[in-house]
Amino acid sequence: MLLPPDVREDDGFSLMEAVVALLVLAVTAVSVAGLLTNTLDAARGNTQRTAASEVAGNVMEAVRNQSADDIPDGRTVIGNQFVDGTQYNVVQDAAYVPAAGGATCAGGGAPPTSGSR
Questions:
Q1: Domains identified in the chain, total number
Q2: Which of 68 and 11 is assigned the larger pLDDT?
Q3: 67 assigned to some structural domain
Q4: Which residue, 7, 27, 88, 89, could crosslink 3 as a Cys pair with Cβ 3.0–4.6 Å?
């Protein structure tokens, strides 16, 4: 079919359309890369906090197994521990707190029975 000379067919993309499409693609790629980087940093931080919590829990368990007289007052450097290549500096702070009124136990009463909650 013959078209009049003033009607033109759109045979494809113009150079300007290709440049705009590449610009949109570049902005999207940079945004996704930034989000991915932030997500990886957050995951690494969470892993390190979990490992630090485990190290602290292990130190607390060791302290619970000591008698009160064996725990030194003040700051004690326990040492450095490495977990997955990350160094954790473990420091213990302890202070003696006397019981109010000289009482060692303020609780009383009978222990609960097996049927009560």
A1: 1
A2: 68
A3: yes
A4: 7
